[in-house]
Amino acid sequence: MGKKVLKNYDFVLLATxxxxxxxxxxxxxxxxxxGQVTVRGLxxxxxxxxxxxxxxxGLGGMFVISLIDYNEWKRFALPxxxxxxxxxxxxxxxxxxxxxxxxWLPMGFFNLQPSELAKVFIIITLSTVxxxxxxxxxxxxxxxxxxxxxxxxxxxxxxxxxxxxxxVFAAITVSILFVAGMRWLHLGVLxxxxxxxxxxxxxxxxxDYQKSRLLIFRDPWQDPTGKGWxxxxxxxxxxxxxxxxxxxxxxxxxxxxxxxxxxxDFIFSVxxxxxxxxxxxxxxxxxxxxxWQILKVAMVxxxxxxxxxCVGVAAVFxxxxxxxxxxxxSIMPVTGIPLPLVSYxxxxxxxxxxxxxxxxxxxxxxxxxxx
Length: 371
Hints:
Elements: H1 2-8, H2 11-32, H3 39-43, H4 46-67, H5 77-94, E1 96-98, E2 101-106, E3 111-112, H6 114-130, H7 144-158, H8 163-180, H9 184-205, H10 208-216, H11 229-240, H12 252-255, H13 267-300, H14 304-328, H15 346-364
Antiparallel strand pairs: 1-2, 2-3
């Protein structure tokens, strides 16, 4: 069985993951080291070293997860769901605050963001619910359990407040439900319902700073030195890269610190300035290739559980890529969504590697019969 696992192992996907992660490490280094960048300078950056640590440990964890038959996780779906809820609730009472949000649990040497892990947990547990034998999504009442399953952790995350991750949950849910057999009629009605709820949420549920983020991207020059500063500087950075870019470690908006949170949410702006349109286009093609590889694993999965896991992971990458890149060029609101595998951050990176480990497990165990 071990030989079959290695024979089925998706080394192309693995190589793509490693390449994107190492490229992200270079961008983290470029965005956190000022002046003439040297190898010694990179390794003197605490951000670079921490990201390198996350990559090494994340790859190791991903490989271990990939060797475990993904079906084993179905047995622990309920404990995982309850553990997920417990962590999210704990954040509301004991979490650390920053930037008007309470999303982190202090863990000594780093702050854990449970909402990042929650994405992976909900993919596992929702896939378990929908993969049960005899499950049908033909009637409206068939959708009640899946929606209730996702709604509880989603509402807790929204209360932190974390609008971006709440939207990722919506993308995961709709994607998995659609592949599981949700009817087009249901999808259409739910889309209209989601639009209606968005208006209600904007009017009555969102904080003032969240409302301003959702509107300022349309015209950041309304407040060029305040709320619009981040978007303006990002557009300047991406535009100044032109065709070929200023060169790695040579971006002026980046190196002179005009661009805020450049190593996290706006790391694509660093890429656009330093490597230009050509570099950004190649990066996006490689990233889309990785998503396509994940969907290919879904298509050859031996069961619905594995298929749903891969679709959920692909939904996370696709949605976060769209929103993260979109907000850097001012076609999407700024929602604080990182670019998986590239943005700096321990919780986000480790959750991403856990999710990719599950995908690699689905590929490796697509044919593990003994005969």
